[in-house]
């Protein structure tokens, strides 16, 4: 089971929107040096919805090759067409990823039975462990706990990234799956500390892009049940969690990476560069988190 701080990796781009492959490799090395426990390549933060299929494949392959087995790599392989999600999962297998993160099909608005059949089909077509990804704020569809419990019985479905931020709901699922080996990850940085202290296994994090060591340390403290230490680190990170949601992800985090010298000022339409009025807020949050000097 993969545990701890899993970064939802941003994809560095040049000013014109072209993928910056050298910067992507450097960003991976940055995470390896600063304690990140695993990497999600081409997840939501990585902007796969504006990539060609070939670019999507190449981002996954480049991250896998750069990591070279030092930590697990989870490939973002979600799609709103089941056939496409299957193809992406199969490609992730071919290039040596350690798992797949498969988001609820967006836009189509499937029923709970449709979600069950979609994920079951992806799992049956792949040799890799599948982590479900529920983010109703983006997909307009919600994977209910009851459906997750059904899917937890499917071979190859090994976990869930829950980005609802609903701790009561998360705690219910944690309790029901406590005696299983099904992994539960927070997908909401502001509530991730409490999620883990309640028994969650980790966080798939946006904030870890710019504060990998602090996120790793917070997860380690929470995993060991060190409530005071986990809360102390999390309190320092809360302004960052908030600031990185000030505009749609990954707009603020890509601006932050640029300010840290880790990426050029590149993002793809329809997303735009961080609005000038929000830059002081994000800059101050980086300073409070201790990842950038004044």
UniProtKB/TrEMBL annotation:
<feature type="site" description="Part of a proton relay during catalysis">
    <location>
        <position position="107"/>
    </location>
</feature>
<comment type="function">
    <text>Catalyzes the condensation of (S)-aspartate-beta-semialdehyde [(S)-ASA] and pyruvate to 4-hydroxy-tetrahydrodipicolinate (HTPA).</text>
</comment>
<comment type="similarity">
    <text>Belongs to the DapA family.</text>
</comment>
<dbReference type="GO" id="GO:0008840">
    <property type="term" value="F:4-hydroxy-tetrahydrodipicolinate synthase activity"/>
</dbReference>
<dbReference type="InterPro" id="IPR005263">
    <property type="entry name" value="DapA"/>
</dbReference>
<dbReference type="GO" id="GO:0009089">
    <property type="term" value="P:lysine biosynthetic process via diaminopimelate"/>
</dbReference>
<keyword id="KW-0963">Cytoplasm</keyword>
<dbReference type="InterPro" id="IPR002220">
    <property type="entry name" value="DapA-like"/>
</dbReference>
<feature type="site" description="Part of a proton relay during catalysis">
    <location>
        <position position="44"/>
    </location>
</feature>
<keyword id="KW-0704">Schiff base</keyword>
<dbReference type="InterPro" id="IPR020625">
    <property type="entry name" value="Schiff_base-form_aldolases_AS"/>
</dbReference>
<dbReference type="Pfam" id="PF00701">
    <property type="entry name" value="DHDPS"/>
</dbReference>
<feature type="binding site">
    <location>
        <position position="45"/>
    </location>
    <ligand>
        <name>pyruvate</name>
    </ligand>
</feature>
<feature type="active site" description="Proton donor/acceptor">
    <location>
        <position position="133"/>
    </location>
</feature>
<keyword id="KW-0457">Lysine biosynthesis</keyword>
<dbReference type="GO" id="GO:0019877">
    <property type="term" value="P:diaminopimelate biosynthetic process"/>
</dbReference>
<comment type="pathway">
    <text>Amino-acid biosynthesis; L-lysine biosynthesis via DAP pathway; (S)-tetrahydrodipicolinate from L-aspartate: step 3/4.</text>
</comment>
<feature type="active site" description="Schiff-base intermediate with substrate">
    <location>
        <position position="161"/>
    </location>
</feature>
<dbReference type="GO" id="GO:0005829">
    <property type="term" value="C:cytosol"/>
</dbReference>
<keyword id="KW-0028">Amino-acid biosynthesis</keyword>
<feature type="binding site">
    <location>
        <position position="204"/>
    </location>
    <ligand>
        <name>pyruvate</name>
    </ligand>
</feature>
<keyword id="KW-0456">Lyase</keyword>
<keyword id="KW-0220">Diaminopimelate biosynthesis</keyword>
<comment type="subunit">
    <text>Homotetramer; dimer of dimers.</text>
</comment>
<protein>
    <recommendedName>
        <fullName>4-hydroxy-tetrahydrodipicolinate synthase</fullName>
        <ecNumber>4.3.3.7</ecNumber>
    </recommendedName>
</protein>
<dbReference type="InterPro" id="IPR013785">
    <property type="entry name" value="Aldolase_TIM"/>
</dbReference>
């Amino acid at each position: 089971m993969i545990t701890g701080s899993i970064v939802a990796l941003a994809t560095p781009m040049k000013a014109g929107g072209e993928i910056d492959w050298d910067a992507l490799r450097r960003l991976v090395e940055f995470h390896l040096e600063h304690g990140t426990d695993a990497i999600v390549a081409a997840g939501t933060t990585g902007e796969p919805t504006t990539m060609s299929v070939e670019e999507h494949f190449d981002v996954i392959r480049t991250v896998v090759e750069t990591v070279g087995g030092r930590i697990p790599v989870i490939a973002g392989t979600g799609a709103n067409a089941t056939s496409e999600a299957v193809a992406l999962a199969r490609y992730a297998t071919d290039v040596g990823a350690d798992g797949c993160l498969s988001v609820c099909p967006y836009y189509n608005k499937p029923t709970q039975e449709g979600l069950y059949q979609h994920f079951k089909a992806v799992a049956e077509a792949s040799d890799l462990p599948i982590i479900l990804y529920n983010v109703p704020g983006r997909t307009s569809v919600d994977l209910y706990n009851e459906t997750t419990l059904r899917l937890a019985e499917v071979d190859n479905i090994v976990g869930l990234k829950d980005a609802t931020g609903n701790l009561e709901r998360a705690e219910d699922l944690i309790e029901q799956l406590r005696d299983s080996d099904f992994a539960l990850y927070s997908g909401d940085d502001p509530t991730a500390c409490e999620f883990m202290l309640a028994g969650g296994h980790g966080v798939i994090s946006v904030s870890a892009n710019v504060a990998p060591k602090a996120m790793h340390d917070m997860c380690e403290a929470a995993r060991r049940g060190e409530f005071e230490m986990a809360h102390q680190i999390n309190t320092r990170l809360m302004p960052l969690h908030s600031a990185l949601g000030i505009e749609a992800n990954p707009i603020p985090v890509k601006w932050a990476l640029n300010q840290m010298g880790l990426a050029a000022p590149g993002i793809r339409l329809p997303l735009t560069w961080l609005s000038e009025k929000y830059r002081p807020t994000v800059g101050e949050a980086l300073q409070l988190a201790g990842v950038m000097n004044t």
